Task: structure prediction
Amino acid sequence: MKIVTSCKMNSVIKKGLLEKYPNVDFSFHPTIKDAEPELESAEILITYGEDLNDERINKAHNLKWIMVVSAGVEKLPFEAIKQKNILVTNARGIHKTPMAEYTIAMILQVSRKSKQLIENEKQEIWDRTIKMMEIKGKVITIIGTGAIGSEIARLAKAFHMKTVGVNRSGHNCEWFDEVFSVNEIDQAIGQSDFVVSVLPSTPETYHLLKEDHFVKMKKEAVFISIGRGNVVDENALIKVLKAGEISHAVLDVFEHEPLPKGHPFWNMENVTVTPHISGLSSLYQPRGFEIFEYNLEQYLSGENNFKNIIDLDRRY
Result:
């Protein structure tokens, strides 16, 4: 059995895999270009999911399983993968801790006016008239109630916030006081002080959040985007921010990345821009390869009780 990688890996993780699975032929490569000569013989491919195309899938004659060591799979060539009936799994769940901590940090940053205080400190300005806001008792709506959304809700409960969720069917989830279906999203966002999007990129979620949705939010509402950038109609968001329809947007993901210089978001006072870092953590790879090892044990034993199987039709 040959396992090929097309992503840079921690040397400690590499060593651990070689020691734990001495009968497996591992071929480690930092990029798909380096890995390409071995795709034809690979049975398992480990990737970040952004480097595959139809040609490479068709070249991989023996490929049975693709392990995406990240949560995002939207750039995979799904039709080619479906035609060859290749198993796809991902590392869903590994981002929940850093992304939930990021979200709470940004809620507090906006509520406690951290950006203004830091700027005042630089300018040696002593201003005690800046209005602070408590988040206790505030309502947070989280669009996407999976691992990340549920962890955000859990932390929000520690601040005595009311937690509202939005998911496909409206089914109840732990840590949420209320859950609405996507079709009921207006009810969910209309009552909220903070609205957080953690949705993946799929054909169903593309530009899901439009001008009408932002207009239905409170004028004091803060929108936080940490899922995928193309869930949001960015032109509509710029329009409502300029009109004061919502008070602030915290944006970590964008439709086109990196966010180009000169983009309006960079210079809007009521926008906080971060460079797609909400999920970063020194524990990223260890957590991802813990899932891979679990699935590899299933694969080797023939049990096939895999974690995080991607539905190739739904694309998540």
In short: The first strand starts at residue 2 and ends at 5. The CA atoms of residues 33 and 154 lie 42 Å apart.
